[in-house]
Design goal:
The protein has 188 residues and is mostly beta strands. It has three domains: 61 residues, SH3 type barrels; 61 residues, Nucleic acid-binding proteins (OB fold (Dihydrolipoamide Acetyltransferase, E2P), Beta Barrel), CATH 2.40.50; 58 residues, Beta Barrel (OB fold (Dihydrolipoamide Acetyltransferase, E2P)), CATH 2.40.50.140. The chain is built from no helices and 16 strands. The chain has a six-stranded antiparallel sheet, with no helix packed on it. It is flat. 17% of the residues are buried.
Protein backbone atom coordinates (compact mmCIF):
# COMPACT_ATOMS: atom_id res chain seq x y z
CA UNK A 1 0.00 0.00 0.00
CA UNK A 2 1.24 3.43 -0.93
CA UNK A 3 0.03 6.83 0.21
CA UNK A 4 -0.47 10.25 -1.38
CA UNK A 5 3.21 11.18 -1.09
CA UNK A 6 3.96 8.41 -3.63
CA UNK A 7 1.65 9.89 -6.30
CA UNK A 8 3.43 10.72 -9.55
CA UNK A 9 2.53 11.07 -13.20
CA UNK A 10 2.08 7.66 -14.85
CA UNK A 11 1.39 5.77 -11.60
CA UNK A 12 -1.35 3.15 -12.01
CA UNK A 13 -3.70 2.66 -9.06
CA UNK A 14 -6.79 0.63 -8.19
CA UNK A 15 -9.67 2.99 -7.48
CA UNK A 16 -13.45 2.40 -7.51
CA UNK A 17 -13.09 -1.21 -8.76
CA UNK A 18 -11.08 -0.13 -11.83
CA UNK A 19 -7.45 0.61 -12.71
CA UNK A 20 -6.61 4.27 -13.29
CA UNK A 21 -3.47 5.97 -14.52
CA UNK A 22 -2.54 9.33 -12.96
CA UNK A 23 -2.13 11.84 -15.78
CA UNK A 24 -1.90 15.03 -13.67
CA UNK A 25 -1.47 15.78 -9.98
CA UNK A 26 -0.94 18.76 -7.70
CA UNK A 27 0.02 18.71 -4.01
CA UNK A 28 -1.86 21.54 -2.26
CA UNK A 29 -1.10 22.90 1.23
CA UNK A 30 -3.64 25.61 1.96
CA UNK A 31 -2.98 28.18 4.66
CA UNK A 32 -5.94 26.87 6.61
CA UNK A 33 -6.89 23.21 6.82
CA UNK A 34 -5.15 19.94 5.93
CA UNK A 35 -3.06 19.30 2.83
CA UNK A 36 -4.49 17.34 -0.11
CA UNK A 37 -3.58 16.06 -3.57
CA UNK A 38 -5.70 17.05 -6.57
CA UNK A 39 -5.44 14.44 -9.34
CA UNK A 40 -6.71 13.76 -12.84
CA UNK A 41 -7.17 10.01 -13.38
CA UNK A 42 -7.67 8.16 -16.70
CA UNK A 43 -9.43 4.80 -16.65
CA UNK A 44 -7.33 2.10 -18.33
CA UNK A 45 -10.40 0.11 -19.39
CA UNK A 46 -12.76 2.85 -20.63
CA UNK A 47 -10.44 5.80 -21.30
CA UNK A 48 -12.70 8.08 -19.22
CA UNK A 49 -10.92 10.90 -17.37
CA UNK A 50 -12.07 11.90 -13.88
CA UNK A 51 -10.94 14.46 -11.31
CA UNK A 52 -10.37 13.30 -7.75
CA UNK A 53 -8.99 14.80 -4.56
CA UNK A 54 -7.14 12.64 -2.02
CA UNK A 55 -6.58 13.92 1.51
CA UNK A 56 -2.96 13.96 2.68
CA UNK A 57 -1.82 10.55 3.92
CA UNK A 58 -4.69 8.71 2.17
CA UNK A 59 -3.76 5.09 1.37
CA UNK A 60 -3.82 4.20 -2.32
CA UNK A 61 -3.55 0.75 -3.89
CA UNK A 62 -0.73 0.98 -6.45
CA UNK A 63 -0.58 -1.57 -9.27
CA UNK A 64 2.81 -3.16 -9.97
CA UNK A 65 3.72 -2.68 -13.61
CA UNK A 66 6.54 -3.56 -15.99
CA UNK A 67 7.53 -1.52 -19.02
CA UNK A 68 8.42 -3.11 -22.35
CA UNK A 69 9.48 -1.58 -25.66
CA UNK A 70 7.14 -2.37 -28.54
CA UNK A 71 7.15 -1.29 -32.18
CA UNK A 72 3.88 -0.02 -33.65
CA UNK A 73 3.09 -2.12 -36.71
CA UNK A 74 -0.27 -0.99 -38.08
CA UNK A 75 -3.79 0.15 -37.28
CA UNK A 76 -6.90 -1.87 -38.20
CA UNK A 77 -10.01 0.16 -37.36
CA UNK A 78 -9.83 0.84 -33.59
CA UNK A 79 -7.32 -1.99 -33.05
CA UNK A 80 -3.60 -1.19 -32.93
CA UNK A 81 -1.00 -3.93 -33.49
CA UNK A 82 2.40 -3.90 -31.73
CA UNK A 83 5.48 -6.15 -31.76
CA UNK A 84 7.80 -6.69 -28.78
CA UNK A 85 11.31 -5.59 -29.81
CA UNK A 86 12.92 -8.28 -27.60
CA UNK A 87 11.08 -11.52 -28.43
CA UNK A 88 9.05 -10.40 -31.50
CA UNK A 89 5.73 -11.45 -29.95
CA UNK A 90 2.73 -9.41 -31.08
CA UNK A 91 -0.16 -7.89 -29.15
CA UNK A 92 -3.28 -5.97 -30.08
CA UNK A 93 -4.68 -3.01 -28.14
CA UNK A 94 -7.86 -1.00 -28.47
CA UNK A 95 -7.76 2.76 -29.09
CA UNK A 96 -8.88 3.49 -25.48
CA UNK A 97 -5.56 2.14 -24.10
CA UNK A 98 -3.54 4.74 -26.03
CA UNK A 99 -3.00 8.27 -24.76
CA UNK A 100 -2.42 10.05 -28.09
CA UNK A 101 -2.76 7.57 -30.97
CA UNK A 102 -3.06 10.36 -33.54
CA UNK A 103 0.69 11.08 -33.26
CA UNK A 104 1.82 7.46 -33.68
CA UNK A 105 3.23 6.46 -37.07
CA UNK A 106 4.13 2.98 -38.25
CA UNK A 107 7.47 1.58 -36.96
CA UNK A 108 7.45 4.04 -33.99
CA UNK A 109 8.91 2.46 -30.82
CA UNK A 110 6.64 2.99 -27.79
CA UNK A 111 6.61 1.88 -24.15
CA UNK A 112 3.76 -0.39 -23.06
CA UNK A 113 2.89 -0.72 -19.35
CA UNK A 114 2.00 -4.30 -18.41
CA UNK A 115 0.25 -5.34 -15.17
CA UNK A 116 2.48 -7.89 -13.39
CA UNK A 117 -0.50 -9.64 -11.72
CA UNK A 118 -2.22 -10.82 -14.91
CA UNK A 119 0.31 -9.85 -17.66
CA UNK A 120 -2.29 -7.71 -19.43
CA UNK A 121 -1.21 -4.47 -21.14
CA UNK A 122 -2.49 -1.37 -19.34
CA UNK A 123 -1.48 1.60 -21.50
CA UNK A 124 0.86 2.85 -24.19
CA UNK A 125 3.27 5.74 -23.70
CA UNK A 126 4.68 7.56 -26.71
CA UNK A 127 8.11 9.21 -26.65
CA UNK A 128 8.06 12.80 -25.28
CA UNK A 129 8.13 14.16 -28.85
CA UNK A 130 7.75 12.83 -32.38
CA UNK A 131 8.90 14.14 -35.76
CA UNK A 132 6.19 14.14 -38.41
CA UNK A 133 5.89 15.55 -41.93
CA UNK A 134 3.26 18.17 -42.76
CA UNK A 135 1.03 16.82 -45.55
CA UNK A 136 -1.53 19.62 -45.83
CA UNK A 137 -1.59 23.28 -44.79
CA UNK A 138 -2.42 26.67 -46.24
CA UNK A 139 0.55 28.55 -47.71
CA UNK A 140 1.99 31.28 -45.49
CA UNK A 141 1.67 34.93 -46.52
CA UNK A 142 5.02 36.73 -46.88
CA UNK A 143 5.55 39.43 -44.25
CA UNK A 144 2.88 38.07 -41.92
CA UNK A 145 5.31 36.70 -39.32
CA UNK A 146 5.53 39.68 -36.96
CA UNK A 147 2.80 38.23 -34.72
CA UNK A 148 2.48 34.82 -33.13
CA UNK A 149 -0.25 33.87 -35.59
CA UNK A 150 -0.79 30.16 -36.27
CA UNK A 151 -2.61 28.02 -38.81
CA UNK A 152 -3.88 24.45 -38.90
CA UNK A 153 -1.68 21.75 -40.45
CA UNK A 154 -2.39 18.07 -41.09
CA UNK A 155 0.58 15.76 -40.44
CA UNK A 156 1.32 12.36 -42.00
CA UNK A 157 -0.61 10.47 -39.30
CA UNK A 158 -3.76 12.49 -39.95
CA UNK A 159 -3.55 14.59 -36.77
CA UNK A 160 -4.27 18.32 -36.86
CA UNK A 161 -1.75 20.67 -35.20
CA UNK A 162 -1.49 24.47 -34.89
CA UNK A 163 1.78 25.62 -36.49
CA UNK A 164 3.41 29.02 -37.22
CA UNK A 165 2.64 30.66 -40.57
CA UNK A 166 6.09 29.87 -42.07
CA UNK A 167 5.50 26.08 -42.03
CA UNK A 168 4.79 24.64 -45.49
CA UNK A 169 3.73 21.26 -46.86
CA UNK A 170 6.64 18.80 -46.81
CA UNK A 171 8.30 20.37 -43.74
CA UNK A 172 9.16 18.06 -40.86
CA UNK A 173 8.10 19.31 -37.42
CA UNK A 174 8.68 18.18 -33.84
CA UNK A 175 5.46 17.71 -31.83
CA UNK A 176 5.12 17.42 -28.04
CA UNK A 177 3.05 14.22 -27.55
CA UNK A 178 1.76 15.20 -24.09
CA UNK A 179 0.09 18.43 -25.15
CA UNK A 180 -0.05 17.95 -28.92
CA UNK A 181 1.77 21.24 -29.51
CA UNK A 182 4.18 22.23 -32.28
CA UNK A 183 7.72 22.62 -30.90
CA UNK A 184 10.02 23.37 -33.84
CA UNK A 185 10.72 22.84 -37.52
CA UNK A 186 13.37 20.21 -38.28
CA UNK A 187 16.03 21.20 -40.82
CA UNK A 188 17.36 18.35 -42.91
Amino acid sequence: MANTSDIRKGLCIKYNHDIYKIIEFLHVKPGKGPAFVRTKLKSITTGKVIDNTFSSGHKIDAVRIETHKFQFLYKDGDTYHFMNTDDFSQIQLQKEALDTPEFMKESEVVTILINTEDNLPLSVELPPHVILEVTKTEPGVRGNTATNATKRAIVETGASVNVPLFINEGDKIRIDTDKGNYQERIKE
